[in-house]
Amino acid sequence: MFAKLLSLIGIKTGNIRNIRNLAFSSQWGWAGILLASAAFLPFIWFLTKRFEGKPVSPKKQKILMSIRLLWAAGLIFLCSSPGIVVSGYVPKQNKLAVILDVSKSMEIKVDDETRMQRVEKIFKKGLLDKVLKKTGSPAEVFAFSDTVSPISRHEIENFSINASGNYTNLGDAVKNVTSYLGETNMLGAIIITDGANNAGENPLIALRNTRVPLYPIAPGTDGDISDLGIKIPGKPSIGFLNSAMAINGEITARNPNTSEVEITVKKDGQIHDSIKIALNKEGLTTPFAYNLACEEEGLFRYEFSLPVSANELTTENNKTGFMLKVVKERINVLAIAGKPSWDLKFILHALSSDPNTDMTMYIKAGEKWAHSKSFKPQKAIQMPDFAKEIEAADAIILQELSYENLRQFQDALVTKIESGKAGLLLLPSGSTVYHPAYASTPFAKLLPVNLAGSKWHSISGNMKLPPGDPEYSFLKLQADRFKNEALFSSAPKFNGIFEFSEIKPAAQILISSTVRGKNSELPFLLHSRAGMGNVLMFTGGPVWPMGFRTVPISGSLKEYTAFIVNMAKWLANRKEDAQVSIEIPGGKAFISKPAKINVWVMDSANKLLSSAQVHLKITEPEGAETKIVCRETSQTGCYEASFTAVAEGTHKIEASAYHKGAFLGTSTTELYVEMPTAEFENPQIDHELLSKLAEQSGGYFAYDVNFSDIFDKMEVTAATKLETAYTDFTDLWFLFLWMALLPIAEWYLRRTGGLS
Amino acid sequence: MKKNILQLAIITLLQAYILFSPNTLNAYTEQLIIPRLKYSGGGDWYTGPTSMPNLLRALNERFGIPARYEDISVSLTDPELFRYPMLYMTGHGHFKLTDSEASALMKYLENGGFLWINDSYGLERFVKREIKKIYPDEQLQLLPADHPIYNNVYHFPDGLPKIHEHDAKPPEGLAIFRDGKMKILYLFESDIGDGLEDAGIHKADTPEIREKAMKMAINIVFYAMTQ
User: Fold this and answer.
1) Would you call A673 helix, strand, or coil by DSSP?
2) What are the strands, taking DSSP E only, across chain B?
3) Do B26 and A430 count as a contact with CB atoms less than 8 A apart?
């Protein structure tokens, strides 16, 4: 009632029904208005009295004076920018979202019924009507897989919903929906999902701060399902001729009806080999190892598959594969250091486990150089032929080398790296390698940081992978993203880290840290391009305890070993002498998932070129062609494009580059596009995750058969929220009327009183 | 009161020295530590407490290797064991590995650790017996005089130098190799450890003999860190 009254006189109340407070506001404040009135009103009184030209009776004089003073007071009041703030309660809408998982795993069948068919039953049993009845508002329905979008009423009524998403990102889906509807407006979110999350952050972490109660509904129980799955976490991409590669994988067997399975290995579609593996009776998983002989040079597609048994949950996870490029030579790693260190020793230890890697190490020992060749210590020598060693190296490691020593081969080193014929790894140690005195040397241009103003923090910390899938395969030591992140963050702590005044604009942070610098968390591993070559720089250390302390995951392979070996191979990624080269950071691609393709362009003097025109021609296995124009990146000479494949199989990629109309050259490579299998790697319903999500958010977890239980647990209160509305007095019609009426009143009095 | 202030001042100065002395103020705070192995069995694992601090000091002074000049001990079942990739073991008497110690030592060596055994006198039969618990199929191999461990930094044309005389037997450097890497180095009838101790502890150790011992020990450390 009161609110209506205020509205009548022009004071804005918005949707406020129940007024809690009215507050006057003014730029001058009460004191300002009183002071201005005290100064101005006597002046008005004096002026009007002094210059009154007509004989006015004292009574009329008082009336006229009052009118003038009131008008002047009103003017002062309006000059103080007055306003009124009305605060009060508005009714809050009790919105309830229904978020439906439409990823591929929802098509998994249990007892002749897919999870999606069970979802349809939930809707047919009146889920949406129950929402309406409970909350008084219709439910907002959304579909999610790796993205989220609203579903129309029509789609729900006809249930024309396809489970075709390649990934499940539960955390992002809930966050997007709550942000779209407004967290404070939401009574809760019903999530219908199997909980097989395989993208984005762990939902328990991503949603730990949500204030919206979550009500997960699982579309069925798995019961006594059986399933066989195979995965190879660290898929190789390069093999070396006449050597064998150890392929380590894992078989997942749920309620298998056999104690032994046969893995069939296919090479380019033809049966190549088979191995029998006895399944682990104790646990769910059985590791397996297979020695893959690289007998011929070329690019091959290998597929590892398991037989399909009766009543399997899904057969999508019964095979996995990779493309393997077999090349002629082993890679040569050269390490040069000013002092021995355990970091170098353990790098050597890790590389020695790989039959395709050779290593030569030189360490300054007084006047001589201690050294090892092919992992075996040798006699000390007076002066190595560094130029020759650098020429033969595919990856070069430097640690704590004084500039005096580095200067001898600096030019050869810079040329080698910039030509892309070797990669460089820098390890921190002492005050030489990362010393500001290096800042103006030719060597410094290879580094991803500006060395001036570097500061050492003796603070222990942990490595931290930036969010998202690592761009480079050597950072992906576990197939599961969360396990991979946990692996790096749980590695033994480092002792200290450098903070640099500037990280060069084109540098990339590959591993961050938990140590905070001036502005943000300090990077631990940086990457930059130097010409055509890759440079990696550890900014802290040591890293070796990760290799020494962690327990091997299999008989011989440790994560640290895989990290170092894969990093060396990535650094050694030999470039041809061409002016155009293609780099596919991920090494492979998946259907419907954009794959990044980089093209590096140089001139004939091996200088990276900006403002080039770069085109890609991608040929699908069936022959269809796609042409893409690459855009220039912030890194000089680097042009990138994103390609989303629609077909499985080997795609041919051809890059052509032009500069100022002149043709620079072409480069070709192949990319194998796989069908994403993430949805089927853990095909069972994740009851644990769903119940924890419900518990953490204050919601309730139910199975589809008793989904109505969630409404019993849901508390619907007549919620309100506090809102405020502001009205500027200069907009008030009655104040305008008041100010206009006062002079009219004086005019009327004078006219009727014979004073005009 | 004055005494307390003086004590406080001294403690503060000492702390400042420890924090900022050249030995600790390395940009890369990881310092080389070679702890001695505190083994079971009753032998004098603690003999020669100045050996390792002297070796570490020499490594720092001659090659600039950041090192902590302390005599630190660690047992095989200590969780701290995996902070030290190189272990020094010495003594004269009985040495025995329990099952858990043997298992920890095997994991330590397979993960990249290195054990240097300096036989001060009388360790031989225990060492040979206990190594079988870790590597039952491996034999200690005699290192030839031209082995890189004798010339990777300093040159020893005749192989392992004789430092301390006991039974007039020739000194022998023996080792266990796995996958081409030396895992255990056993120095017999040489006693490099004696030669590393402070001057004056062993009257027979002349400066020349002590320098020889130091050079051989430096070769061993470089070998362990470059293989």
Assistant:
1) strand
2) 36-37, 73-74, 86-91, 114-119, 141-142, 172-178, 181-188
3) yes
Q: Does domain A580-675 have CATH number 3.40.50.1100?
A: no
Chain B CB within 8 Å of residue A544 CB: yes
What are A91-147's pLDDT values in tens digits?
666 788 999 999 988 888 777 788 899 999 999 988 899 888 888 888 889 999 888
> What CATH number is attached to the domain comprising B93?
3.40.50.12140
**ipTM confidence:** 0.86
Pairing of strands A423-427, A395-399: parallel
With helix as H, strand as E and coil as C, how does A206-259 read?
A: HCCCCCCCEEEEECCCCCCCEEEEEECCCCCCEEECCEEEEEEEEEEEECCCCC
Both structure tokens of A34? 């009183």
pLDDT > 70? residue B16: no
The pLDDT of residue B161: 94
Q: What pLDDT does B22 receive? A: 36
In a domain, B197, yes or no: yes
- Asked if residue A270 lies in contact with residue A317, where contact means CB atoms within 8 angstroms, the answer is no
Question: What is the second-level CATH architecture of the domain A227-327?
Answer: Sandwich (2.60)
Nearest-neighbour CA in chain B from A370: distance (Å): 6
Closest chain A CA to residue B19:
A458
Set of chain B residues whose Cβ sits within 8 Å of the Cβ of A431: 26-27
- Which pLDDT score, from 0 to 100, does residue A590 have? 84
State the average pLDDT over residues A327-332. Answer: 77
Residue B123 lies in a domain: yes
| Residue B75 lies inside a defined structural domain of this protein | yes
Write the pLDDT tens digit of every residue in A415-449: 999 888 899 999 886 544 455 567 778 888 898 99
Find chain A residues with C-beta within 8 A of B27's C-beta: 428-431, 434, 456, 496, 498
Please state the pTM of the whole predicted model: 0.58
- Half-sphere exposure at residue B144, Cβ-oriented, CA atoms within 13 angstroms: 2
Q: Does the beta-carbon distance from A376 to B227 stay under 8 Å? A: yes
Residue B65 maps to a domain: yes
**B221 to chain A: which residues are within 8 Å by CB?**
340
Q: Mark out chain B residues that contact chain A at CB-CB < 8 A.
A: 26-30, 62-66, 82-83, 85, 107, 111-113, 148-149, 151-155, 179-181, 221-227
Q: Which has the higher per-residue pLDDT, A433 or B68?
A: B68
Class of residue A108 by CB neighbours under 10 A (exposed 0-12, middle 13-18, buried 19+)? buried
Residue of A nearest to B67 (CA): A341
- In terms of CA atoms, which chain A residue is nearest residue B113? A548
Q: How many CB atoms are located within 10 Å of the residue A150 CB?
A: 12
pLDDT score for B187: 95
Q: Could you read off the pLDDT of A452-461 as tens digits, one per residue?
A: 778 888 888 9
Fold agreement (A93-222+684-713, A331-571): yes
A340–B226: do the CB atoms touch at under 8 Å? yes
CB contact set of B101 (below 8 Å; sequence gap of 6+): B39, B40, B75, B76, B77
CATH fold group of domain A93-222+684-713: Rossmann fold (3.40.50)
What confidence tier does A555 reach under pLDDT thresholds 50, 70, 90?
very low
| Highest mean predicted confidence (pLDDT) among A212-226, A347-361, B4-18, B72-86 | B72-86
Which structural domain, as residue segments, surrounds residue B149?
Answer: 30-226
Mean pLDDT computed over every residue of chain A = 85
Q: In chain A, what are the domain boundaries?
A: 2-90+723-752, 93-222+684-713, 227-327, 331-571, 580-675
What percent of chain A stands above pLDDT 70? 94
* Of A606, A597, A487, residue with least CA distance to A546: A487
CATH topology of domain A331-571: Rossmann fold (3.40.50)
**Cα–chain-centroid distance for residue B195?**
12
- The Cα A366–Cα A405 span in angstroms is 12
Domain count, chain B: 1
